[in-house]
Amino acid sequence: MKDNALSYIVLFGFVVLLIVVALDVFAPPGGQTEAGAAEAGPAGAPAMQNDLDHEVEMSEGETLRINLRPGGSIQIRGWDEERARVRFSLRDTDADAFRFEVERTRSGVEVTSERLRRLNNVNVRVEVQVPRRCNLELRTAGGGISIRDIEGSISGRTAGGELTLENLIGTIELSTGGGEIFLADSKLDGTVSTGGGKVLVENVEGDIKASSGGGEVVYRNVVTPNHTYPADAVYIRNAGGSIRVDDAPAGAHVTTGGGNIRLRSAGGYVRASTGGGDIRIDAVDGWVEAGTGAGTIEVTMVGEPDDGKRDVTLKSGLGDIYLTLPAGLSARFEIELAYTQNSSQRFEIRSDFDLIEERTDNWDTSRGTPMKYIRGSATVGGGSNLIKIRTTNGDVYLRKQE
């Protein structure tokens, strides 16, 4: 029995030895991979999820494409290197939830991400440094985009997040589903847009168009082919909603798709328009153009009457108009008040200036709806400035400020 037991022990030890040798022979070179580490791929393969920092060759004039399918923010900076450096930042607990790839392509570099498991919140940031002269094509399912020091073509979209754009040269077509936009210190042609949020365009030259589905669009020191917006002037455009400006010493250009407009004080000029709503300009030292689809307009001109251009054009599709002018203003008046058959028909022009008034007797259908007109005209002090007023179904009040 003892001999048999000894034989079994020797045989067992021999088998164990064979297993150890076999494991050593057939083990992959370099030893075992650590738990959770990415598997080694062939040379030149895309960097995978645990390679959070990656560098790849990239020449000037090439294209960087980023597509973050699960979402995430993007930050891009230009530098004086012939390579791209990519860094992915995310919470440690989410390291196994994503797969990232950085790949060299014929046209440049492509960066992509995919989600491997479900997450309540995606908190991923991609930071990229690329040659200054390059093109960008960007897409993320949600997250801010920040771009600085790039010369080339920029296009892309985020489902939602802020756009911060600085020191850019070239063309741009970039949009966000919702979030503020800041574009500054650039020479660009193209468009930037948001579904909702404030837009500020500052120190920019080029044929640039900015828009917001629900928020102010403000231009400061912007030069386009058709217009120049001085640095200290106020330029606001809203898709809809009220606008209020307390002080615009170098002038104001304000537009809203619908809502009231209120300017307390402006110098140089005011250009104001709303699709529907009241316009009130408490004090303007310069010329005025104001119009509303329906609403009351109130304007008071201040300052020296002989100082610069002081033309006034006021139009309301429906409502009263009040205009107060300096007593010594050299002006030529052209007033037209229209009223319809279904109105009270008791409208009038009330003026502190001596106007020649004419009333039509017959209903005029040349504009579709039958209308009668009350027209007033006069030339005061040589008629240097044109005062033109048009309204329908509303009174006109001309006041002289002594």
Secondary structure blueprint with pairings:
Layout lengths: L1 H25 L26 E5 L5 E6 L4 E7 L3 E8 L7 E7 L3 E8 L8 E8 L3 E6 L4 E14 L4 E14 L4 E14 L4 E7 L2 E5 L3 E8 L4 E2 L4 E5 L4 E3 L6 E5 L4 E3 L2 E9 L4 E14 L4 E5 L10 E5 L4 E6 L4 E10 L8 E3 L4 E4 L11 E10 L4 E8 L3 E6 L1
Parallel strand pairs: 2-6, 2-8, 3-7, 3-9, 8-9, 9-10, 10-11, 11-12, 11-13, 12-14, 16-18, 17-19, 18-20, 19-21, 20-21, 21-22, 21-23, 22-24, 23-29, 24-30, 25-29, 26-30
Antiparallel strand pairs: 1-4, 4-7, 5-6, 14-15, 14-16, 25-28, 27-28
Question: Any overview of this molecule?
Answer:
- The protein has one helix at 2-26, and strands spanning 53-57, 63-68, 73-79, 83-90, 98-104, 108-115, 124-131, 135-140, 145-158, 163-176, 181-194, 199-205, 208-212, 216-223, 228-229, 234-238, 243-245, 252-256, 261-263, 266-274, 279-292, 297-301, 312-316, 321-326, 331-340, 349-351, 356-359, 371-380, 385-392, 396-401.
- By secondary structure, it is mainly beta.
- The protein folds into three domains: 45-159, no CATH class; 161-229, no CATH class; 232-402, no CATH class.
- It has a 30-stranded mixed β-sheet that branches.
- A hairpin with a 4-residue loop joins β14 (216-223) and β15.
- The radius of gyration is 35 Å and the shape is elongated.
- The N and C termini lie far apart (133 Å).
- Mean pLDDT is 86; it is low at 15-51.
